[in-house]
Design goal:
The strands form 2 sheets. A 3-stranded antiparallel sheet has the order 2-1-3, with no helix packed on it. The model has no long low-confidence stretch (mean pLDDT 75). It is built from 2 helices and 5 strands, in the order αβββαββ. With 149 residues, the protein is α+β, with helices and mostly antiparallel strands. The longest helix has 25 residues.
Length: 149
């Protein structure tokens, strides 16, 4: 690759980064008509009220991360609450493959019932180029997505 092309690509980036890090002073003054002005240079003709330098805060920059070395002391756990104050534990459902298959079968049955409802009350409207379903009369049907199980 030609080194001239490399400089052509990276020079604008380097210049932009150097301008971003530059910090200019900002001056504030009030002119004779009472208008407030802000500029990076003080005015040539000094106004009556004087010129003050405005302190501009830095941009929203994150401080460097401070790494704390791990200690060899054991972690202190908070004291546990008494069982009476603990939130009630929901009943455990039967887990495993059987419950998963039953849940999937129920979702598939609900999806098929939803599809059958839309097919029963919807109308197919065809034009010269395509056919579309008009389900405006199917407000009683529940639109369910096809389960992925």
């Amino acid at each position: 690759m030609n080194t001239c092309r490399v400089w052509q690509r990276w020079l604008p980036v380097l210049l932009l980064m150097s301008f971003m890090s530059a910090h200019a002073e900002v001056y504030r003054w009030v002119d004779d008509q009472g208008r407030v002005h802000f500029d990076d240079r003080p005015p040539d003709k000094m106004p009556k009220n004087g010129v003050e330098e405005v302190k501009v805060r830095r941009g929203n920059v994150v401080d460097p991360v401070k790494i704390v070395p791990p200690s060899n002391e054991p972690a202190v756990e908070p004291p546990s609450e008494p069982d009476s104050a603990a939130a009630p534990v929901p009943p455990q459902s039967k887990g495993g493959v059987v419950a998963s298959q039953a849940d999937c079968a129920a979702k598939n049955a609900a999806y098929e019932a939803s599809r059958a409802c839309y097919e029963a009350c919807g109308q197919t409207v065809c034009s010269a180029w395509s056919c579309k379903r008009n389900n405006s009369q199917c407000s009683h049907c529940t639109d369910l997505p096809k389960p992925r199980c």
